[in-house]
Amino acid sequence: MSDRYDFVIVGGGSAGCTLAGRLTENPNVSVCLLEAGGPDTSPLVHAPMGVAAMLPTKINNWAFETVPQPGLNGRKGYQPRGKTLGGSSSTNAMLYVRGAHYDYDQWAALGNNGWRYDDVLPYFKKSENNERLTDEFHGTEGPLHVSDATDASPLNDLFLQACQANGIPHSSDYNGAEQEGCFMYQRTIKDGERWSAAKAYLTPNLSRPNLTVITHALTEKVIIDNGRAVGVRYSIKGQGYEVFADKEVLLSAGAFGSPQIMMLSGLGPKEHLQSHQIDVIQDMPGVGQNLQDHIDYVQTFKVEASEDTFGLSLTGSVHLVKEILKWKKSRTGKVTTSVAESGAFYKTNDDVPAADVQLIWVPGIVDNHARTINLGHGHSCHITLLRPESRGEVKLKSANPSDSLAIDPNFFDDPRDMEVLIDGAQRMQQILESEPLSAINKKMLYPVGLGDRKTMEDEIRNRADTQYHPVGTCKMGTQDDEMAVVDEQLKVYGVEGLRVVDASIMPNLISGNTNAPTIMIGEKAADMIKNDYQF
């Protein structure tokens, strides 16, 4: 195995797999991909419903937690992140969501040229292989397979009817011209299996002689020589190694991993690094700052045991065993569900520029990230605050790369976030208690009186948590923004040969799930790199 490559990519998640697949299309370009987790061989990765087993456990999951959150009554939040090839695209609920046109136009308005919606749309299309949608908004020849729901619960129809009865029109394409509406989610699933970024960009290309993938490799630092990133130091089971990049080091370790590695490498807020006895190579106050995440509140209604819902009961257990055997045999049946099946985007008031809340309906009981077990059956709905005003940070706890991080999303630090979420959640509850859904409801798991803002706020502070979309900690911005870490080409300010390519570069959180946008960032960065080096 060589220790020299043209490019070294740190992180085999959504962006890292995309970069590795695209850069090695040229046989003369060599790439080494380092991933801290293992290979994506677990059946729980490939069975779409496996998300229900990985999310609440440490299976393929870093399972981070936050520092105590004052806005959540002092609770520590949970932060699951994928720890395997494919990253969180191998452990998520597979929803294919791009966000609003407005989001990317705002990125460009902040001075990030080339990031308007019209600029990034070609990269969404380049990545996409959509089985149904073939218009000007969608691609049909990309490596990322996007499909409609199969074997979804018939109760989705009741949810969608209730949405429409409460003024939310049906949408046939929430990723097209208009985001608002209610719909069945499209998913990154193909032939009954999860279609992660690894399955799309990495697995088909592992035989390329110019691609080296090293798993279980914990990156310790970027090696910087005279202001240039020249390689990476990593360890496997405590044994140290070094690998060198003749062209660039590409950090794709995510909103937590990328700032952590930068700080361990001496790039970050000077006083914070000095407090951990890390030699400061460059004082960069924005590294680890600007953390944004989607805060999410769930309401659940108990129903009679039924094969139309997932639940802990004799009926449910027998049915699930049958469905697992069916999936093993034919890759069909309810195991092909993303669990999160239908949803909606809507505005809490007419003055906002785009939908500011998102609904995700689930045919089962969702409680504390599936870590709290409830007997019986039910249906649940998430409501997610899409564009939070609150900003948090990620800091080191020590100079040891194996140590956990101090993750502080700072939920509800800005009081506007709570008001918007309550406004949106009241409409959600109205939907869930409307016909025809009301006909199947037995009781609410955590009761809130319709219109009772005070009790709803209490419930939100007691139970709300992340929707798993941390971004922003290596902010893209102009050089006069002291919080900016990378420029519009994703190059790190003041360090040659180093880029950050993942969700951490987002200046503002997009209005929806972050997997598809992160893959888009990987696609766009790959083209930038190819253009810089003319290959």
Automatic annotation (TrEMBL):
The keyword Flavoprotein applies. The keyword Nucleotide-binding does not apply. InterPro entries: FAD/NAD-bd_sf, GMC_OxRdtase, GMC_OxRdtase_N, GMC_OxRtase_C. PROSITE patterns: GMC_OXRED_2 (PS00624), PROKAR_LIPOPROTEIN (PS51257). Its cofactor is FAD. Residues 254-268 form the Glucose-methanol-choline oxidoreductase N-terminal domain. Belongs to the GMC oxidoreductase family. It comes from the Bacteria. It comes from Thalassotalea eurytherma. Keywords: FAD, Flavoprotein. This is Choline dehydrogenase.
